[in-house]
From TrEMBL:
This is Phosphoesterase PHP, N-terminal. SMART domains: POLIIIAc. Residues 7-71 form the Polymerase/histidinol phosphatase N-terminal domain. It comes from Thermobifida fusca TM51. One of its GO terms (molecular function) is 5'-3' RNA exonuclease activity.
Length: 290
């Protein structure tokens, strides 16, 4: 008997802040028994082609992205799928975001050095693989450098002690308004889902405000990622109800970052009907089928 289709719509590779290459991510997805995987690196689609070229037989790859947004000083993340990667306005915004990521990381290194922490930009850049111009540098790479330097016990400690919001080396950066981000993805023919809405900077106490979710829905938001490893049962149920109230699709995803998250692909999944509903509303790109 054929088992139920297993769909994971949120994963990261070494092109952003995951530890595995795009080719390794799809291999792990197949090994985990997934039928559909979305690769959603932060603010870039640079890993999609490599993942597609190494796609195992029987696995469908959904090209996607996780957009960095901000609202009233808090981070809000938006997952975009099946959009036109060459859409001019979206492309320009992504380039601006990536450029500012580099500026931010360099400034963080400078602040850490001013505090006597022996972290270098060269090491952060190497950890990100940024030298080839494809990979996106992010705070997790700075955090890894802090751990290597002995200034933090692990990545979470690096955020809590040094680079999280309000900490000594924290630096803000350019990020999209969430409502505008929804409109950009939809204008590019894509569909979008609000990512881990009960989580902000790794904490469960900073949910995305209801009024913002409503405005995002009015702008064309298609779904809410209710089932996420960082959400407890109560939060999952609450966000499922909110999605139903707004007529939005409910998704479940692992938000896998390779070794950083214990290679948890498939730990949370999306129902086939929900995936079909999302794909039916997209016109910017097609999934890759292995």
């Amino acid at each position: 008997m054929i088992g139920a289709m297993r769909i994971d719509l949120h994963s990261h590779s070494s092109v952003s802040d995951g530890t595995d290459t795009p080719a390794e991510v799809v291999a792990h997805a197949a090994a985990a028994g997934l039928d559909v995987l979305a690769l959603t690196d932060h603010d870039t689609t640079a890993g999609i082609l490599e993942a597609a070229q190494h796609l195992p037989r029987g696995l469908t790859l959904v090209p996607g992205i996780e957009l960095s947004c901000a609202y009233q000083g808090s981070s809000v993340h938006l997952l975009g799928y099946l959009f036109d990667p060459d859409h001019p306005e979206l492309t320009a915004e992504l380039q601006r975001i990536r450029d500012d990521r580099v500026i931010r990381a360099k400034t963080m290194v400078e602040r850490l050095q001013a505090h006597g922490v022996p972290v270098t930009w060269e090491r952060v850049r190497a950890l990100a693989g940024e030298e080839d111009g494809r990979n996106v540098v992010g705070r997790p790479h700075v955090a890894q450098a802090l751990v290597e330097a002995g200034a933090a016990e692990d990545v979470q400690d690096a955020f809590d002690r040094w680079i999280g919001s309000g900490k000594p080396a924290h630096v803000t950066r350019y990020a999209l308004d969430p409502v505008r981000a929804v409109r950009l993805i939809r204008a590019a023919g894509g569909v979008c889902v609000l990512a881990h809405p009960a989580r902000s900077e790794g904490a469960l106490t900073h949910a995305v405000p209801d009024d913002l979710v409503e405005r995002m829905a009015e702008a064309g938001l298609n779904g809410i990622e209710a089932d996420h490893p960082s959400h407890d049962d109560e939060e999952r149920a609450s966000w499922r109800r909110r999605a139903e109230e707004l007529g939005l699709v409910v998704t479940g995803s692992s938000d896998d970052h390779g070794g950083l998250t214990g290679r948890r692909l498939g730990c949370c999944t999306t129902e086939p009907d929900a995936y079909a509903a999302l794909a039916a509303q997209a016109s910017g790109a097609e999934p890759y089928v292995g």
